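Appendix B. Raw example, untouched.
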Amino acid sequence: MGRKKNITFDDIARYTHFSKTTISRYFNNPDSLTLENQEIIADALEKLNYKENKVAKILANGKTEFIGIIIPNLYYQYYSEILDQILKTYETFGYKFLVFVGNGEEAAERKYIQELLSYKIEGMIILTHTIPSRELADLQIPIVTIEREDKFVCSVNTDNYMGGVQAAGLLAKHSCDILIQINSPISEEMPAYGRIRGFVDFCTEHGLKHQILYRELGSVYEYAQKQLTEIAETLEKEYPGQKKGIFVSSDTNANVLLNILIRKYGCLPKDYLIVGFDNAPISREAVIPISTIGQQVEKQAFEAVSLLVEQMNERKKRSPVPLKEPIHKVLTPILFRRDTTERACADIQKMLK
């Protein structure tokens, strides 16, 4: 059988009796044509079984329809969940994604950025923390960050301060003797630092005994387990018999702590209440579902891509108007009450049998 002929702009022009310029405008600037002419060309494409040549289109207009993404790791479920939600926006916006995992390595991340730029990406979404936003802004490409320092670039974040208040409020409601937050050391410029401030402010305002435990938890399960085991042993020694309300910086680590306690006691003891952060799948799927402060991950991902597309579309205009200052969108967190705060130990024991 002979090879099937690729349909060209010349073929479409002859079929519709339009010029090649008009056909080109249909693909690159359809709004410049009347609706009637758009429909004529669309009908011709269907009847001719036209398959768009993406490479030719990129060479013609320089637009790749690619967005670069750099995420810190895939260990924390929040990152894998938000990456999944970002990728799903293809159906709405039509952009494809090139993804790199930074793993906290600054040199590697700089290399990834240069690699992405060499592919002529139209914009970037950054979730890693290693490169300052000032340096990102100097790249002269539309950028939106998520949950990281964002002074000089656009961003979409959760109201982390409110999340800290919600966590402390939930634990206080259960009359805990001591409220404890477990968090990796973090810069005050990071949005996530708001979780600490909100937690501390609530406890201080209400005269509640509290403690912040800073411990580098890393991005490897075995390392996090070791650190959290040591923390659990310390809490046993310092607060024996006291009701401990624990706010953990992520659902991933909240689940690690929960498993440590269950392995030791066969249950979540009645003097331990646990709240995580993110509403990642693990919080719902844990052997004892974990109460958590939920980031609206689906909305966060959609808003980030939408904000980036707005910037990219502006740059395509004949006379683009640059942003006078970065846009920062903040989403409200949602409290999810689950068994690690809402069910008595006896009830949980029955559930585990």
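End of appendix B.
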